[in-house]
Amino acid sequence: MLTAKLTGQLTLNALRRTHHGACHPCIYTLSNYNLHNERQRTRDGILSDFSVLRRGFYSQSAIRPSVRLRETQHYGRRPFSLSAATIVNAAPAPVQPYLRLMRLDKPIGTWLLYLPCTWSIALASDPGNLPHLGMLTLFGAGALLMRGAGCTINDMWDKDFDKKVARTATRPIASGEVSRMQALVFLGGQLSLALGVLLCLNYYSIALGAASLSLVVTYPLMKRITYWPQFVLGLTFNWGALLGWSAVKGCCDWSVCLPLYFSGVMWTLIYDTIYAHQDKEDDVKVGVKSTALRLQEQTKPWLSGFTVAMMSGLVAAGVNAEQTLPYYAVLSTVAIHLTHQIYTLDINKPEDCWKKFVSNRNLGLLLFLGIVAGNLWKERRETLLQNEELQR
Q1: What count of other Cβ atoms lies within 10 Å of the Cβ of residue 89?
Q2: Cα angle for residues 133, 247, 364 (degrees, 5° grid)
């Protein structure tokens, strides 16, 4: 078995490693090495170990982070890491299943939920000013909680599906680490905290934010019903494009918010269709649907169309928000990035799909910086106009 080979290789490597050029050898110990061997072996309804490695890209590692090589020296020094997986692994054992249930060890989803909020907050900022740091922090906390709540709901709905796929069979609910009742209580805690964040906003934003809950609850069902669950995910994940503006301004300017929201939905269709191509074989086996299965070899033309629609929406939002040159310069870079992403995509290579998928975090951050720079440029432009009027 592949896992047995990995075990032998990792153990051999751990015994061979020494600290070159030092008086004292480094001592390496292999702790908590289990790799969920029993859960990831081929058995009734479970895919092969090769599939475990292929599907493992979503967790940003083909091997679960429970494989820990701890390095200690006589001087007590250890390698330092602040990765999300390291933080989860350092938590008390009883807490870890709940942190994995809310995907705290896989932060890419939180980023993709948070970034449309930052775009909207930045667009709503006064000319010449940076986005409100307190508002960005508040929405960051909200994104973390709501993404976690969405994952909990998803796993509660998909318990039976998850058991049939090796990658998801080790999820806390599917594996039995967390019962459905415990998950329900945990979900209540997450939603209560998220409500506390929402109540920090104005009344308009509270009502607008509450309206998104129906999408959060029903999205996990869509892959049973339609080949376009990514569209519903886009409606859900980009609600912050509406909420960020209303939180700053007190209400939505629909001439800005709707094009921005539309662009976010198109963006989700791009990156989540790419992501879905990793899972298409397993999706067929368990009987769920996705845009990857719907579009198949026509994926690239469709992604190109989504890109054109996304960029059109961003241009419209920028014009209506009176954005300036830096914003449009960054839009050009975003368009080039997406074009390269689609052109070089190999939908039959899961590792390439994963690489393209996670690159969208940087794309979202780039767009945020473009909005901020464009907003700061407004003050300079207004100052120049005022000086010209005075000279006249």
Answers
A1: 21
A2: 60
pLDDT at 347 over 50: yes
154 phi and psi angles, rounded to 5 deg? -60, -45
Residue range 138-159: average pLDDT?
93
Q: What is the DSSP string of 57-96?
A: GGGTSSS-TT-EEEEE-TT--------HHHHHHHS-TTTH
Do residues 229 and 223 lie in contact, with contact meaning Cβ atoms separated by under 8 Å? Answer: yes
Measure Cα distances from 149 to 200, 216, 220, 287 in Å: 19, 8, 12, 24
Residues 7-16 have a mean pLDDT of: 44
Question: Cα–Cα distance between 231 and 348 in angstroms, integer?
Answer: 22
How many angstroms separate the CA atoms of 377 and 375, rounded? 5
| pLDDT 10s digits, 222-233 | 998 999 999 999
**Can you give the three-state secondary structure of 243-280, one letter per residue?**
HHHHHHHCCCCHHHHHHHHHHHHHHHHHHHHHHHCCCH
The structure tokens listed for 72 are 């200690």
CA distances in angstroms from 47 to 54, 282, 359, 360, listed in the order given: 11, 8, 28, 29
| C-alpha dihedral (305, 306, 309, 313), degrees to nearest 10 | -160
DSSP 1: -
Q: What are phi and psi of 217, to 5 degrees?
A: -75, -40
Do the Cβ atoms of 286 and 165 come closer than 8 Å?
Answer: yes
Q: Between 48 and 132, whose confidence is greater? A: 132
**What is the mean predicted confidence (pLDDT) over 57-77?**
38
What's the pLDDT at 361?
A: 96
Helix axes 240-249, 133-157, angle to 10 degrees: 150
Cα 389 to Cα 39: distance, rounded to the nearest angstrom: 74
The span from the CA of 108 to the CA of 362, in Å, is 11
Q: How far is CA 365 from the centre of its chain?
A: 13
